[in-house]
Design brief:
Shape: globular
Helix content: 10-25%
Order of helices and strands: EHEEEEHEEEH
Oligomer: single chain
CATH architecture: Roll
CATH topology: 2,3-Dihydroxybiphenyl 1,2-Dioxygenase, domain 1
CATH superfamily: 2,3-Dihydroxybiphenyl 1,2-Dioxygenase, domain 1
Number of helices: 3
Radius of gyration: 15 Å
Number of domains: 1
Distance between the termini: 31 Å
Number of strands: 8
Largest sheet: 8 strands, mixed
Length: 148
């Protein structure tokens, strides 16, 4: 595994980037009007900020594990399936969070969402489907709405 991942919902990207830059002692590796990403080597953490208007209460969007290849993604999917944890859905060659990715999603017993993903390349659009949480309209119904 490369990085653990936390996606945090925020109401103000600029203020949040300023705060987390001070907290982590580094600048984000990517900043967009609705998104920012920090890659921390120690601990290995991919920490993203996602602009979501009107959020209140728990601001966690989702958790994830960033992997080094599509093969690793599939190996974890198979390992979890053998352990009785089925993926909610898969996304292959999906555009999400300004990246081209292969991934699958699972939920813990309390409904917390986890993605296992491999980033193939950076791209200039946040989400090819313009929906929240990097889910397609068809798969969105399987996820909690992170921005409502």
């Amino acid at each position: 595994m490369k990085y653990a991942h936390v996606g945090l919902n925020v109401t103000n990207i600029k203020k949040s980037v300023e705060f987390y830059s001070k907290l982590f002692g580094v600048d984000p590796v990517r900043v967009k009007p609705d998104y920012a990403k920090f890659l921390l080597e120690k601990p290995g953490l991919n920490f993203t900020l996602n602009l979501c208007d009107g959020v209140s209460g728990n601001q966690v969007g989702h958790f994830g594990i960033q992997l080094g290849s599509t093969e690793e993604v599939m190996a974890h999917k198979n390992r979890l399936a053998e352990a009785g944890i089925q993926s909610q859905f898969d996304e292959i060659n999906t555009t999400c969070c300004y990246a081209l990715q292969d991934k699958f999603w699972i939920q813990d017993p309390d409904g917390n969402e986890w993605e296992f993903f491999y980033t193939k390349a950076d791209v200039d659009v946040n989400d090819e489907n313009a929906s929240s949480c990097c889910a397609t309209p068809e798969t969105k119904e399987n996820l909690n709405n992170c921005c409502s």
